[in-house]
Automatic annotation (TrEMBL):
This is 5'-nucleotidase/2',3'-cyclic phosphodiesterase and related esterase. Belongs to the 5'-nucleotidase family. One of its GO terms (cellular component) is outer membrane-bounded periplasmic space. Residues 62-248 form the Calcineurin-like phosphoesterase domain. It comes from Vecturithrix granuli. Keywords: Hydrolase, Nucleotide-binding. One of its GO terms (biological process) is nucleotide catabolic process. Gene3D superfamilies: 3.60.21.10. It comes from the Bacteria. Pfam families: Metallophos. GO terms for molecular function: 5'-nucleotidase activity; nucleotide binding; UDP-sugar diphosphatase activity.
């Protein structure tokens, strides 16, 4: 059979069309995801002084910073995820007297996507927590806190967000001794961090391209206080399929990239003095991080 130049071109064209239309062939897509995050806000929605730094400008400065970064990332075609590692409650009279209503409503305005439940977020009765989540307008997460009598999960254990085909799972973990350090601790039980993650993470890997642990457990054992609890390091060592751990509970500030195995760990310190930033480049086909830019902590002043 003799092929002409015209017939050969037609065959090539048909082959290319079939490549794009075939349901069994998928083309890899590269995603850029920026994770902005805060930890242990503790009622600091107004500006405050903390020796030796003065005039830290609270949520107003944080809003400006978040909006600048979000505009920059979205203009470049990326996506922004804004997370809180918990303990929004308990810290200043102006917040405490109002059950942190100003804090959660301002977080809503900033566009937070999710928050891990901290031990001080459990300081109030459950009905206050539910009211706070309504003010916030974003989900509170904890996979290991249950109502003591009923054994039911207190809040959502995780969420899965989708960005143009990229699926990102975020699950929450709360310090194990939260029931001992909270005023209403007798109403709930904080179960094993490690066992909860070992059970949940494989399920999330089936649903998402990236798995993020949003934790309020501290960085190391005993880092949250005199009680013993597994921290982010132990979590990364024992549950190796987590891609990123966004940490809370301790005043640990990471100004460079920290990794344990394939897991990245980030923490911006307390009171919103810094907003943490981690930029990820993700290959949808390989379902893994191709590259990371080291975390940058931006001061909220």
């Amino acid at each position: 059979m003799k092929f002409t130049k015209t017939s050969f071109s037609a065959i090539v064209f048909i082959a290319v069309v079939c490549l794009f239309l075939s349901p069994t062939i998928s083309l890899a897509k590269i995603y850029h995801l920026t994770i902005l995050h805060t930890n242990t806000h503790s009622g600091h929605f107004l500006k405050f002084d903390e020796y030796p730094v003065h005039d830290i400008r609270g949520m107003a400065a944080r809003s400006t910073l978040v909006n600048i970064v979000r505009a920059e990332v979205e203009e470049a075609g990326g996506h922004v995820l804004l997370l809180s590692a918990g303990d929004v409650n308990i810290g200043t009279p102006e917040s405490d007297l109002l059950y942190a209503e100003p804090d959660f409503k301002l977080m809503n305005m900033l566009g937070y996507d999710a928050m891990a439940i901290g031990n001080f977020d459990l300081h109030h009765p459950p009905e206050v927590l539910m009211q706070q989540q309504e003010w916030a307008g974003f989900p509170f997460l904890s996979a290991n806190v249950v109502k003591k009598e009923a054994g039911e999960i207190l809040v959502d254990p995780y969420i899965v967000k989708e960005y143009d085909g990229l699926h990102v799972a975020i699950f929450g973990l709360t310090v194990e001794q939260a029931d001992f350090t909270s005023k209403h601790g007798g109403m709930f039980e904080s179960r094993s961090v490690i066992e909860t993650a070992k059970k949940l993470v494989p399920q999330l890997r089936q649903k998402a391209d990236i798995v993020i642990a949003l934790t309020h457990i501290g960085h190391i054992i005993e880092s949250g206080g005199s009680y013993r609890t597994p921290g982010d390091i132990q979590l990364a060592e024992e549950v190796t399929e987590i891609d990123v751990i966004v940490g809370g509970e301790t005043n640990t500030i990471f100004t460079g990239l920290k990794a344990i195995g394939n897991t990245l760990l980030v923490n911006p310190g307390m009171y919103g003095r810094y907003v943490g930033r981690l930029d990820l480049t993700i290959d949808s086909e390989r379902r893994k991080k191709l590259a990371t830019i080291p975390i940058h902590s931006f001061r909220s002043t």
